[in-house]
Amino acid sequence: MLPKKYTWLVLLSIISLNEALRVLVWFPLFSKSHNILGRGVVNHLLKAGHEVVHVTSMPQKAPLPNLTEIDLSSIEEAFKQDKESNEHFKLKNLVGQKNFGDSIFFLYLSYEINKVSLEHEAVQTFLADPKQKFDAVILEWFFSDFIAGIAPLFNAPLIWMGSTEAHWQVLKLVDEIPNPAYSVDLFSVKRPPLTFWERMVELWTLAKRYVIINGVVVPFEKRLYNTIFPDLAAKRGVTMPGYDDAVYNASLMYLYSHPSIGTPFRLPQNAKYVGGYHVDTEVKALPKDLQKIMDEAKDGVIYFSMGSNLKSVDMTENMRNSLLKMFSKLKQKVIWKFEEDLQNVPANIHLVKWAPQQSILAHPNLKMFITHGGQLSTTEAIHFGVPVVGIPVFGDQYVNTKSAVDKGFCISVTLAEDMSDDIYAAVQEILRNPAYKTKAKELSAIFHDRPMKPGEELVYWLEYVVRTHGAKHLRSPAVNVPMYQKLFLDLLLIVVVGSYVLCKIKQKVFGKRKADKPVKSGKKTKTN
Ligand SMILES: *[C@@H]1O[C@H](CO)[C@@H](O)[C@H](O)[C@H]1NC(C)=O
User: Fold this and answer.
1) Which residues constitute the signal peptide according to the record (predicted)?
2) Which domain holds residue 385?
């Protein structure tokens, strides 16, 4: 029993520990998967009793207490008008393409998306409003750094969300560029250990992107930063720090990954793996028809979905028909996320326009998941311990799939018009060989073996950052060391210049003697 006079102290500390914070959650991308991640953050914060303002282009229909949404859905409408871009992302047009993540077009696109979100009228009004105050700002990082300027507007600690596996572009914001000899680019198709040529390719990829980003993208970003933020700051009565001071001032970096599914990167103290936080804590019941199909499938069920961005509807007719034919040869039931009704679908295939993915993955009769290898799908597969056939299409899907293959719970298939035979072979191998499922279960156990659930951890570190006024003590000293100092280029310069000067001196002094020498030796011959 505590002495009575301490009880009020204890009570007070409980109250102050649970003090509600006001958090800005910036997830403006109009993409279903990014929105799932944004909502996940919002829901965990609300559950912990905090108040949230969510900048989103996919607002929820029903309002929730303590949640305000800044609605950016008009951006999606505008981009939908852009027929050319839309065609670009269709499954049939991505067959045989190079990963467009590694292109100038992608850099331009991501810059544009961030710019349009920041310039949106609703965002501008909101950011300029001096009544808005926040204890912390969470920004989804999407290939642009300049949005870091949002945090100093509110004088609040900056927390980045890196919504993929770790990679150099996010790690440089809180630490430094990792060594390309064992840390691959997000759009790479390799994983360590790397061969000689693979290392050369990684070095080249990094050097190329580094030069393009610093030479082209950053100047654009700086100009935008210096046009947008000072006005907003003036309206709020604060002054903006310089671009670099804002960008490299993060208190924390969340990474949507986990070593069980990805690469165990060497991370600074303020980078935290929170992969899996978006998965519901309780599995929702399946719709009746799916429940019946899955319960009664005595040979098991195969689930096929290319995710929310890539639509199966956008396959060529040829590809779709050959897949239908191939699936019809299986004894298993096939649940295929297909966004339209089709005629004459074979009896063992069940098309769904929307798939309750987590509930399907949780069903004991599920044999495997055929997926595009998106980070959320891969994570959910491991959350539920399901083996995978991976058909990567773009972005980080190659890295994720390669990782899954290396870890032993996945067979990868190349996206092609005539891939159905390869998928069939992969499916048969996973059905026949129990190693894939065993591995998926083993990794699932590792995935869940953490001191805290990822959603709780996410909330914990946010509260920690606020409690410690920006967690300055966790920051890596590397973040403030310029590249030339890390590479000791200043030392190199001293050595080169020093050697040159020494050479010159030597030439002057000894050169003279040398010039004297023949005379001396001449004297010698004479005397001899
Ligand atoms: C950097 O972050 C800390 C902690 O949130 C804050 O106190 C400081 O003002 C920030 N500095 C700049 C230049 O924004």
Assistant:
1) none
2) 288-448
Residue among 255, 235, 524, 500 nearest 396 (CA): 255
SS3 457: helix
How far apart are the CA of 155 and the centre of ligand 1, in A?
7
CB atoms within 10 A of CB 446: 13
Length of the chain: 528
Task: Look at the alpha carbons of 35, 39, 40, 42 in this order and tell me if their dihedral is positive or negative.
Answer: positive
516/376: higher pLDDT: 376
Q: How far is CA 147 from CA 78, 113, 205, 228, in A?
A: 21, 11, 25, 10
Distance from C-alpha of 411 to C-alpha of 388, rounded to nearest angstrom: 7
Question: DSSP 3-state helix, strand, coil percentages of the chain (rounded to 5)?
Answer: 55, 10, 35
pLDDT at 19 over 90: no
pLDDT score of 273 more than 80: yes
CATH number at residue 109: 3.40.50.2000
Residues with CB under 6 A from ligand 1: 152, 157, 241, 245-246, 249, 251, 470
Please indicate, yes or no, whether residues 188 and 300 belong to a single structural domain of this protein.
no
Is residue 410 in a domain? yes
What is the tally of structural domains in the chain?
A: 2
Q: Across the chain, what does the average pLDDT equal?
A: 92
Quick check: is 523 in a domain?
Answer: no
Name the residue of 174, 239, 249 whose CB sits within 8 Å of the most ligand 1 atoms, as the mutation to test its pocket.
249
Q: What is the residue-wise DSSP string for 413-448?
A: ----TT-HHHHHHHHHHHHH-THHHHHHHHHHHHHH
Rounded Cα gap, residues 392 and 372, in angstroms: 5
3-state DSSP assignment of residue 74? helix
Residues 332 and 310 in one domain: yes
Distance from residue 422's CA to the centre of ligand 1 (Å): 53
The two structure tokens encoding residue 414: 């190349």
- Pure H helices in 53-195: 73-81, 83-88, 91-94, 104-119, 121-128, 150-154, 168-174
The neighbour count for residue 212, using CB atoms within 10 Å, is 13
Residue 365 CB neighbour total at 10 angstroms:
16
**How far is residue 474's CA from residue 471's CA, in Å, rounded to a whole number?**
6
Q: What is the pLDDT of residues 473-501, one digit of tens each?
A: 999 999 999 999 999 999 999 999 999 99
Co-location of 123 and 231 in the same domain: yes
Provide the H-helix boundaries in 261-300: 288-296
**What's the rounded Cα separation, in Å, for the pair 492 and 29?**
44
Give, as one character, the DSSP assignment of residue 241. Answer: P
Handedness of CA 366, 436, 37, 102 (dihedral sign): negative
Nearest Cα residue to 455 out of 252, 275, 268, 260: 275
Kindly state the tokens that stand for 497. Answer: 């210049």
Query: Which amino acid would we find at residue 494?
Result: I
Distance CA 469, CA 156 (A): 9
246 Cα nearest atom in ligand 1: 14
Structural domain includes residue 508 = no
